[in-house]
Amino acid sequence: MTMTKRIGIPLVMAALGAMAFIALQPAEAAGFNERVSGNFIDTAIDTNGDGAQANYFSGATAGRNGATYEGLVEVDFSDPAAACDDGIMPGDIVAYSIVRRYSTGDLLYSQLVDGYVCFNTATGMADFVVHAELRGGTGRFVNATGTYTASFTIQLLIPDPLGGIGHGAFYGTTSG
Q: Is 8 exposed, middle or buried (0-12, 13-18, 19+ CB in 10 A)?
C-alpha cells in the first residue's frame, strides 16, 4: 500500500465520522424568513371545549429547500384580548400546532405561545399573528428549540353556516 493510500483512507474515514457527528447534533433555531401559503377547512375538533371548531390547514414554504406542513388552529371570538380596528372582529388564537415535513423525511414540531386574529366579516379577510415555539421533531430536529412569528392573511372562500370559519386560503411569512 502506498503512503498516499495509507493517509487518504483514514482521512476520508475521519471526515465521514465528523459529518455523521455534525448531522446528529440537535438543531437550533437560526434566523430565517419563509414565505408560506396553503388552505384550511373546519374540523369537528374543539381543542378547548368552548363549542367552536378548530381549522385544519396544510401548505408549503416557498423555495428550493421548502417544507410541507399540516396543522391545527382554533380561534376564540367570545371574549378576545386582541385589539383590532373598528368594525373588525377580534379573536384570540387558543390552539396552534404544526408538523413540518422536509424532503429528507425529517419532521419539525411547533406549538402556540400566543396569537390573535382580526377578521373583517364584510370582506372575508383576516390577519393572523402567531407566536410559536419549536418542540423538537425527528431526524436532525430531535432536540430543536427556538421561537418564531407567523404572520398571514386568510381569504375566506366558503363560510361555515354553523358559525365556524369554513374553508379558505392563506399566505404570509414565518420568521424567527
A: exposed
